[in-house]
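Field: COMPLEX_INPUT
Field: COMPONENT_COUNT = two
Field: RESIDUE_TOTAL = 529
Field: MODE = joint
Values follow.
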Amino acid sequence: MDNGSTKICSRGSVNDLRLIKIFVLLLVASIKRQISYRTNMIFNGLLTILGVGAGLFSIWVVFTHTQKIAGWTLAETIVLLGTYQFVGGLVNTFIEPNLAFFQGKVTQGEVDDFLLRPVPTVFIASFFTCNPWGFIQVLAGVVVIVLGCIFTKVELTWINILIFTFQIVLGTVIAWSYRVAIASLAFWAPGAEPSIIYDALWQFGRYPISIYPNFLKNLLTFVVPVAFISTYPARSIVHDVKWIYPVESLVVSALAFIAALVIWRTGISRYTSATS
Amino acid sequence: MTNTIGIMQAYIHRYFLQWFAWRSFAFTLVANQTVTPLVSFAVWATAVPGLSYLSTYYVAILVVKLMTVSYENHTFSTRIFSGDLQDDFLRPHPVILQPLAENIAVRLWHVIIGLPIFICLALFSGLHTTFTHLIWAIPAVIMAAVLQFLVTYTLALSAFWTEQSHGIVGVGQLLTTFLGGEAVPLAFMPSSLQLFAKFLPFHSMIGFPAEMLAGTGSTWIGITMQMVWIVIFIGIVRVVWTMGVQRYAAVGA
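Field: COMPLEX_OUTPUT
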């Protein structure tokens, strides 16, 4: 490394604005790469829409048998499904393509690439590529949320919507933190591939967590924070907002963020590349 | 015929040992299979409380799922994409025997890993089924297993035409989950849809054997539908296979 690159190598001077710029550049590069595979995009888009439709169908059938499940009406559950698809879409677009099956990258020594870049390793490991068709899931989520909000009988105020957006952002941060923590397990146990379990646990977020028995509800709030991804944000928009909700989410997401970084850093310090 | 059985035994033994090396991964696969029935059960238990039949039905769904699991899009489609399939053409047996053997080995592992879970769940939920039901359910489950393999294999053969075989198999699995009786037990569907869904292959693959295990299946209609769909899909597999092989070109040496 010589000439102009000495300046970028000083890791201490990385600032947030530069990270955002790099993120946008990575995004544009990914989109350019993937847009040439138009059939892929159309097909995955259709698959997403089918998945969302199937989810709506099963909710509709459930509500032909009852008026409320655990205090949530049909419209409210639809908003919850929309939230789930929205956050899930964000994760599938930006995070999943990079951190899914991370264990393979660790055992093959591909993490070396990330260590050599002049940006925080966890940043480049989480965001170096993206799946543009995940945006269709995000869009579908928005449509479903709006659909649910139209039919809900609750008064929608600007405060509700603001807190809802805030909690969705926090939920995404929590989802990212959790994904990073799960991927970091590869540094300790390179034989275990936890991505499948992560994907499976995500499914619990499709419905309000109050339908699950207490031990599962606690598990889904404190151990695997799936509740913060769909139930808690949706709760802010369709049920009464208590000020404790966004504060709770803020505290948990801050803790999750810090925990993820600590786990990642500890894991990276254990990383020994695959020798050649 | 004895040759085929001997070959299958050897392959199943080999794949069983291979998957023994991947047993922790197999464990995560089993965990993955248990989630959708669990979520669906929680939803329906909340929506229609007090039905003891629900817990029996969903334990049955879980058992059937683990016995009929099929991952041909991961095992076979990748062989088509990478060109490894050309080795299979040189072997003195139909190509389908290998993926079938792997399928059986994977299912064996799922059942072995899942068995303690079944027993716990059965005791915990106070399973309401009789020995007669279990006996009658055996042919239903076996045929569902065959049908599930045939359907997934057919969809995985789409790899001859497109890179989207994962997505295509995904659509098949989505339809099986939502129309087959897993996400929504057929008894709870609106009656017109129920009738329609009964004649689709998805119900024969998961909902019907689960109903037989739980004791509420309509035996003769269900078994007939399963046989009809198996015959149809055997025909489809043959046609699709012939068409696919004709256009298959691998990277040669």
